[in-house]
Design goal:
With 231 residues, the chain is mainly α. The chain has one domain. Helix content is 83%, strand content 0%. The protein contains 10 helices and no strands. Helix 4 crosses helix 9, helix 6 crosses helix 7 and helix 6 packs across helix 10. The longest helix has 31 residues.
Amino acid sequence: MSRDGGSMWRDALLMAGKDLRVERRSRVTLNQVAPFALLVLMLFAFALDPDRDVLARAAAGLFWVAVLLSSLLAVQRSAGLETADGLPDALRLSGLDPAGIFLGKALAVAAQLILLELLLGAGVVVLYGVDIHGVATLAATGLAATAGLAAAGTLYGVLAGGLRVRETLLPLLLLPVVAPVLIAATRASEAALTGVQLDVSPGDWLSLLAVFAVIYIAFGVAAYGSLLEEL
């Protein structure tokens, strides 16, 4: 049962710190996820290189596809930390607020995704030759999309965590759900990367990203405890 807000956020920071310390020691994001994400960008560049104009126009979509694929690896890693033998029971008996556990794990995933997005953003500029026209729009899009991806990924990670086929089931569960994030983040980023004014303003797409993030954060806070009991 959820406790007061102060305890929830203390537990969230405790859980986020634990996950980030594990990541710092293992260096999975640095040694595996980041090279994978950059490789995806390079493959797109090789595939579309004969037409640099097409590559520049598609930069926003290719960037977010790379982020989305990388987020699958980050979420699987995060969920795997709590599904080893005996750990689910230890987590349930720890006295930590389930809502705090959810928020902490989502914060840790979000922190890793933000670092990956900064790295991939530099890769898009170098490999695709785009000029950034709206830093503030890109920053707002990145924060809103990252919040949605981290919240949805953490929620579906624990949902698939108790299954033996979770490595293959998680992408099947998560990718259709986060498709609106991919579309909205791509459209919100296009004007900032290409300078072309779109029929729908970036602010409208940002609103959609914010709604998605709020829904999944609220649902995760409410349902994570019940899902954790099923592990």
